[in-house]
Write a structure and sequence with these properties.
This protein is mostly beta strands. The protein has one domain: Kelch-type beta propeller (Neuraminidase, 6 Propeller). Helices cover about 0% and strands about 50% of the residues. The strands form 3 sheets. The protein has a 4-stranded antiparallel β-sheet, with no helix packed on it. It is globular, with a radius of gyration of 14 Å. Keywords: Kelch repeat, Repeat. This is Kelch-like 35. InterPro entries: Kelch-typ_b-propeller, Kelch_1. It holds the Pfam family Kelch_1.
Length: about 120
């Protein structure tokens, strides 16, 4: 179980990445995210965690096996909040709820393994 980003009791966004090991019943900190953000969505596809949302204009990747962050894609506009599907699929689909200043709905679909636009 991974908790990525969020905000503390003071309302300040964080780049913390926390991992829970149920066998050890213990939390640990992993490499910090390359962003400090909340209201994120995450999905796992082929052992990689994809993170989007929080008004970011990028899709980030996190590899739990190597504890390394990367960038998968630059989006045409910031994603406020997203719905994603990935379990059992070979694609990550991002459906963006537009911000009040963004007049259109953004729909993106990326293929695995390196998320190329379809």
């Amino acid at each position: 179980l991974y908790v990525i980003g969020g905000a503390g009791h003071d309302g300040v966004n964080t780049d913390k990445v926390q991992c829970f090991d149920p066998k050890e019943d213990q939390w640990s900190l992993r490499s910090p995210a390359p962003f400090s953000q909340r209201c994120l969505e995450a999905v796992t596809l082929e052992d990689i965690i994809y993170v989007v949302g929080g008004l970011m204009s990028k899709i980030f990747t996190y590899d739990p096996g190597t504890d390394v962050w990367g960038e998968a894609a630059v989006l045409p506009s910031p994603v406020v909040s997203a719905g994603e599907k990935g379990r059992g699929l070979a694609k990550v689909q991002v459906l963006n709820t537009p911000a009040p200043t963004v007049p259109c709905l953004t729909y993106l679909c990326f293929s695995s393994p390196r998320l190329q636009k379809n």
